[in-house]
Automatic annotation (TrEMBL):
MF (Gene Ontology): carbohydrate derivative binding; isomerase activity
Pfam families in alphabetical order: SIS
Protein name: Tagatose-6-phosphate ketose/aldose isomerase
Cellular component GO terms, alphabetical: plasma membrane
InterPro entries membership: GatZ_KbaZ_carbometab (IPR050303), GlmS/AgaS_SIS (IPR035466), SIS_dom (IPR001347), SIS_dom_sf (IPR046348)
Species of provenance: Auraticoccus monumenti
Length: 375
């Protein structure tokens, strides 16, 4: 197949993958500098144990909530839930509880998606008491402009450049997820520098990921547990988007994969397993690694590991220096594996990663959605 991108052509997607460590440092600095105002806004919601914190977004933005919610819920000892705007808008009465005070955290790259805007409006309509934390990469987006000066709203803008121009969300995903973790969970002990250094080290070892792409899998399965299930979902979406659906991608939890989804496996499948840093959860991740290595062959099972000491039968991609980080934090470096694999596979298929759907079947900002009034 003739490649659609000439060698050496600058790509938005490639630049946006590689800029992430720098943006994370900027996100952390922004949170440190603006901690006072943000804390004033968030403190009443932290103190109200009966309140609900709801993380919402569409597509990749929904997966940001899935990565953050389990850890934040355990850390804060309260209800922190991830619900996609696509579910919230379609069925608000099932997703919103009118008599429960709710902090709605909205993730939005552009702030222009119809469901993102409608979700905040429905929350205002249905809930008796609601506040909005808007985490967005676009200061000119409808969501940011609508909530900029509203009482009961706080707009947390991501650094310039995080509003990805490529088709697939990369740096916007990790920047917004990091912002939510730092905003709601507080500063990370030891800071985010180990995370940024781990990502830079991984980018320098891109050849390890290119070796996975060289296997030319017909399907790729991503598995993870807890916060890493959200990472698995996002990883599968990246491959599906960047290859225009030419490579089948699937995601599931390590335990859940045996309960039916395992049927997706073919001899040409590659399975990527994200190993949890939690010692209990890690045992289940390693169980499925060994099982799949026996059935597919060790070269078809790739482990992404923050600790680097797992006795795995197949290939392992180490995230150096992240052994002490909570899963949702090192997941931000881990997703670079999926982003780079998606880009490499896209190029190998002769596609343009910045525009894998040149005829417009799928769009960077979702189109064609009719938001129906709630009656």
């Amino acid at each position: 197949m003739t490649p659609s991108v000439e060698p050496g052509t600058p790509l938005h997607t490639d630049r946006e993958i590689r800029q992430q460590p720098r943006l994370w440092r900027e996100v952390a600095a922004t949170l440190d500098e603006g901690r006072g105002g943000l804390e004033t806004f968030l403190a009443p919601w932290r103190e109200r144990r009966s309140a609900r914190i709801l993380l919402t977004g569409a597509g990749t933005s929904a997966y940001a909530g899935q990565v953050a919610a389990p850890w934040l819920s355990a850390l804060l000892g309260r209800r922190v839930e991830a619900v996609a705007t696509t579910d919230l808008v379609a069925d608000p009465r099932q997703q919103l509880t009118p008599d429960v005070p709710t902090l709605l955290v909205s993730f939005a790259r552009s702030g222009q998606s119809p469901e993102s805007v409608a979700a905040t409006e429905l929350a205002d309509q249905v809930l008796g008491e609601v506040a909005h934390l808007i985490i967005t990469c676009n200061p000119e987006g409808h969501l940011a402009r609508t909530h900029a000066d509203r009482p009961g709203s706080f707009v947390l803008l991501m650094p310039e450049g995080s509003n990805d121009q490529g088709f697939a969300m990369t740096s916007s995903f990790t920047s917004m997820t990091l912002a939510a973790l730092l905003a709601l969970g507080g500063p990370l002990p030891g800071g985010i520098e180990p995370l940024a250094l781990a990502a830079e080290d991984l980018l320098a070892r891109e050849v390890e990921i290119e070796a996975v792409a060289a296997l030319r899998p017909d399907r790729v399965v991503y598995l993870g547990s807890g916060s890493l299930l959200g990472l698995a979902h996002e990883s599968a979406l990246k491959l599906l988007e960047l290859t225009a659906g030419q490579v089948v991608a699937w995601s599931e939890s390590s335990l859940g994969f045996r309960h039916g989804p395992k049927a997706v496996l073919t001899p040409g499948t590659v399975v990527v397993v994200y190993l949890s840093n939690d010692p209990h959860t890690r045992r289940y991740d390693l169980d499925i690694v060994n099982e799949l290595a026996d059935s597919l062959g060790p070269d078809r099972v790739v482990v992404v590991d923050a600790q680097g000491d797992a006795p795995t039968p197949g290939g392992a991609i180490r995230l150096r220096g992240t052994a002490g980080l909570p899963d949702p934090y090192w997941a931000l470096a881990g997703v670079l594996v999926a982003q780079l694999l998606g880009q490499s596979t896209s190029l190998a298929l002769g596609l343009h990663p910045d525009n894998p759907f040149p005829t417009g079947e799928v769009n960077r900002v979702v189109q064609g959605v009719t938001v129906h009034p709630l009656v």
